[in-house]
Amino acid sequence: MAIIGTLSGLLLTAVSRVREAARKVQCSNNLKQMGLGVGSYESSRRSFPPGSDQIPSPPLAPTGTEHAWSSFLLPQIEEQSLAATIDYKAPWNAPGRNAAAADIIIPIYVCPSGVLSFKGKQDYGGISGTFIVPTGRQVPLPDALSCGTIVPVTKAGQWGIRPAEVIDGLSSTLLIGEAVDRAIHPALKFDGPDHVSWAWGANRITQNTTFINNPFESSIRSHHIGGAFAAFADGHCAFLDGLMDPDVLFALCTRNGGESNAPGGN
C-alpha cells in the first residue's frame, strides 16, 4: 500500500506538471495572438490602440467612454461580430447598449491558469508605464502612468502611441502582460464592477512593484511558477523572470527611457 501511495503521488505530480505546461503554452499563444492583433491594428491605424478612451464626450460620456484597448482590438482577433454590437460613442458599460457585450467571456483574454471566474474576465493588461524607481532616481517618473505603450487618451485629436515614439526599440518594450485574477482597487471602483473586464479601460496596467509576481500585488502577475508571460511591441512573446533586475523591468515598461534591455522570446 505504501508503494502504491508513493507511485500515485508521483503520478499526480507528473500529471499536474503536464497540465501546467499545457496551460503555459495556451497562455503564451493568447499573448502571441494579441500581439499579432495589435500589429494588424497598427497597420491600419498607424498607432497602437489606446489604453482607455478618456476624451470628454458629453452628455453620454463627460469623462470619456472608457472603452479599453482590448475592446478596440476585437476586429483584429476575429471578434468582428462582437465589435459590431458595441456603441463606441457610449460608455463601455452603458445599459441597453454595451453592458451585455462587456459581460461576454472572450477565450483569448483568459489565462487557463487563472483561478477566478467572472463576467467579461480579462487576465491581461496593456502596459501603460511603471512606478518602479530605477537606480539613480529618488522618485518615479513624472509620466509614470503613461510612459508605456498602451496609454489612456484624454484630449480630442489624440489616440494611441505610434511605433516611432517607442525610442527604446519595439523588441525591448512591453506591450501586454499577464495580470491574472485582478480585483479592482477601491479607489478605482466607484460604481463599477469588482473585477477587471476586457471592455473597461481600467484593465491597462502600470507596474507598481520591483518584482513580477510580488505577493504585495504586482501589476504584472501570473499563477505560473517563476514569472509571467508578456508580449512585446514587435509582436514576440517571452516569459519574464520573477526575479528580474528591477532596473531591467523598469526599462521594459517604458518606451522612451533610452534603454535596450530585453529577454529572449519567440
Characterise the protein shown here.
The chain is globular. It has one domain. The termini are far apart. The longest helix is centred in the N-terminal third of the chain and has 44 residues. The strands form two sheets. The chain has a five-stranded mixed sheet with strand order 5-2-4-6-7. It is α/β, with parallel strands linked by helices and 266 residues long. A hairpin with a 4-residue loop joins strand 6 and strand 7. The mean pLDDT is 88.
Query: How many helical elements?
Result: 6
What integer value in Å does the Rg equal? 19 Å
Strand content: 5-15%
The structural domain count equals: 1
* Alpha carbon gap, first and last residue: 46 Å
Number of strands: 7
Order of helices and strands: HEHHHEEEHEEEH
For the residues shown, what is the average pLDDT? 88
Helix/strand-derived class?
Answer: alpha/beta
Low-confidence stretches: none
> What is the share of helical residues?
25-40%
Q: Tell me the major beta sheet.
A: 5 strands, mixed
Query: What is the topology, as strand order, of the major beta sheet?
Result: 5-2-4-6-7
Query: How does the overall form come out from the CA principal axes?
Result: globular
